Amino acid sequence: MLLIHCPYCEDSLPELEFTYAGEAHIARPADPSALSDEEWRDFLFIRTNARGPHYERWRHIGCGRFFNAIRDTVSDRFLTTYKAGEPRRPLTNEAAE
Amino acid sequence: MSRYRLQGKGRVDHSAPVSFTFDGKTYQGLRGDTVASALLANGVHLMGRSFKYHRPRGAVSAGSEEPNALIGTSRGAGRFEPNTRATVQELRAGLVTESQNKWPSLSFDVGAINDRAYMLFSAGFYYKTFMWPKSFWDKIYEPVIRGAAGLGKSPTEPDPDRYASRYLHTDVLIVGAGPAGIAAALAAAQSGADVTLVDENAEMGGSLLSDPAVLIDGKPAWDWVDAQLGRLRAAGVRLMTRTTAIGYYHQNMLGLCQRLTDHLDSPPKGAPRERMWRVRAGQVVLAQGALEKPLVFDGNDRPGVMLAGAAQTFLHKYGVKVGDNPAVITSHDSAYHAAFDLADNGARVAAIIDTRESPRPDLLDGARKRGIEVLPSHTVTTTRGRLRVKSVRAAPVRGTQVGTGRDIACDCLLMSGGWTPSLHLFSHTKGTLAWDGQTFLPDRKTEDCEIAGAGRGLWGYADVLADGAAAGLRALEGLGRAGHQASFTVANDRPGSGVSHTELPTDGNAGKARAFIDFQNDVTAKDIRLAVREGMRSIEHVKRYTTNGMATDQGKMSNINGLMIAADALGKEPPQVGLTTFRPPYTPTSFGAFCGYLRGETFQLTRKTPIDPWAEANGAVFEPVAQWRRAWYFPKAGEDMHAAVLRECKATRASLGIFDASTLGKIEVAGPDAVEFMNRMYTNPWTKLQPGRCRYGLLLGEDGFIRDDGVIGRLSPDLFHVTTTTGGAARVLTMMEDYLQTEWPELDVWLTSTTEQWATVALNGPNALAMLKPLVEGVDWDDFPHMSCAECTVAGLPARLFRLSFTGEVGFEVNVPARHGLALWTALIEAGKAYDICPYGTETMHVLRAEKGYIIVGQDTDGTVTPGDAGLDWAIGKAKKDFVGKRSLSRPDIVAKGRKQLVGLLTEDGSLLQEGAQIVLDPNQPKPMKMVGHVTSSYQSTMGHPIAMAVIEGGFDRMGETVFIPMPDGVRKAKITSTVFYDPQNERLKA
Ligand SMILES: [Zn+2]
User: Domain named SoxA A3: which ranges (chain B) (predicted)?
Assistant: First the structure.
């Protein structure tokens, strides 16, 4: 069972307290009606399906907050977590360690 | 006393005899015995029949890796366990055991005919046999194989025992309490770290318990172990015996299964049988030692053929001589010590057959002193003996030539093919392994762990102790603590080395050799070579084709031998062929241990409403809805469900019904931007909804499909009381939180789940208003039409009152703080007597709503239904620029013709349809028929005929058409109608 660091609680807690919430950094378009059918389809359904570091969202059930994470889908390791709304973190060596 | 038991020897209590039975016969063992050691002390080697060929088998090991000696054990009524390893099960008074895979008896078994027919059961048997012909499967293969297959008998009764579970956080967890583990624990216990040392055996000490003559720091091994365990205890180290580390998971979490009572004569009543520990460790030291490998030769599986190290363990730990006249076949130095120790205890060792050319001079010396003949550069070509080995045929080997053999009489044969580091737990972490020419050693680590001692290929106590101490110190340093490096002096050490082999050379017909690799699954060397000949290239394919290593022992003994032979057959180096993956659990683990407390009533929480006690006292039949237990219907004497529901429906439509709706999800949406938030989340327009009014709200996913619905009241400009479906409450709140936190953090809104804060009672029927009015204070009835809400008091209790209807009758929902729920209910029941008030359950609620065509999200919708499909276009705020899911409602697939739409169905013959039944337009079309939809809801109704709802392709344009529902007992005809069967003009709501 993984330990996941909640950036709001600032604590590493058991996986059981968290739920997965899909890929991160897919913002809802400000004006969906301005999007073509293809663009809207991509927003709804097209995801990266990364092998390796993956930007994703998790929710800490304990505090109720959604946050972002980079998780390696091969090793299942969390490389980093950060608050919702923060910009996409670069894949630095530190993060990838 | 049996002549195989050595007086005063071993760690068993010679003054404490213990009786047990095996296959109905009573035997005596000693306290401290395992079933295997006790049977061996009685001269019994034959302990079972093998899985496929039903060959007679005895214990081949003395530990948890045992593949052969699997027995059924019974601990009294309902407490039968198959496949218990006789080498692990401790003896206790009155233990009842039985052998497996035999009929009619262990010594004469009819199934052993499989052994004669072994040519038919070779590698790939399962794949080849069942290819042809198809019809044979049902009639021949399955019945025959089901009869013959299986390992042991499954228990037939529920497990009556309790199982516990615990969490543990520790600085250092050390797995294995042999010399390396103890040395590691001594090192790690310095400077106050929290240290846990676990061992799967009943006693700590590991291999030292089988090597009592070794001196450490001047002390005999057993005294040294006692002294160190005392030191560890004094240092506060947690020592756990009978505790198997079954799995090694991410971030240094390990699962430990602790056996608590199976060894006790009479376990304390209610004591848990096993306890699962979930341990999070700062550092882990794996000191699991090594497992001895069998050698592969014809007849290496007869009872009496066992690992040399096992014989040494039976001798020293249990005081049991496994035979009077052992022979030894070895490719490793360690077996010499087993032979010497047996000779020193009165056994006549027939010969030590060594595959190597030049055994170590000191070992040859030791043999000469004891008068033991050593045969270097020899092989074993076969063994004889039906139920017990009687002789072994040894033959000289020169180059590839096998010379003339000779039969050596013996009553047991001790074999050693060297030792395999036990790296199962390490492999669970995806740590990589490196091949050193003989075996695999740990290479790259993925977790904070150290591997020490024989577990990383070291041999000899001096090296192992030093390595354990160093590993313990590194673990301590990994925690940021310091300690000093301990050193040990070892006398009478037993260092050694050896070589790995494929099958031993033979002068016999290799194709006929019964040289076993996997004893539990009856896989021979020939099977592996056949698999390679038939095209298997990867070890994973060889494994599946032959089933090598796929038994419950996960190939602890067989994997390396199988790999060596497969690599040889492929002409490759073993690492190029690869090793199969070890997976948790390390040893077979009971389901009970995994379940722990999560069974029966404590498997899942049962949520009960504040009114539940009344329902129970008044004879409600309950049904589970999400995690809730809800009153389903309230039968009166002699009523079945149908009669009760019909009575409840009619009473409600005629006068007054009362229903516990407390399970409805409730969310409070509050704040200055609450109305903006509601506008964005729900399809409906909320801006113009006045405080004191409510509205049906529809929630979509961003994909445009219906997710939830419920009536929502606006209590004040910035406060909405949202209700959701019973099962959807948590989901809806999560979805709202997601949008609020991550898409619209600028909105000033708070969301609070209030499901359990309110008890909700629904009153429905033409007399609902008359009955309720006198109980209410604070409501202006002149301005409280259908779809109103107010904060007021009801029966003197603070309340949120909603006027709404899910039945088509005049209806109210009274919310009071949960602690007042029961008081409200009883007050309403009392006041309702004048109107023949009728309590009803969820079934009546379903019927009444279906008669009005009100949908239930999740029953009439399935995640592919849009508002348009469900006939709910009216609930969409078309003037709104945006809301969740709006853009999707104009996607090409959503506006396309032919979508499944929700309609009503009335059967022509007045029969009740089955929910989920498929619908076709032409019942005479060839199969497979084109299915155009399915029945979503179906009930007996108050209108004298059943009603149903269904989703049907293009259903709105098929009003009045007939469709067909093929059922096993014939095809039903039904007419498509509106979903509103009752009071389509809503006249009754206006009363
Ligand atoms: Zn948190």
Answer: 513-594
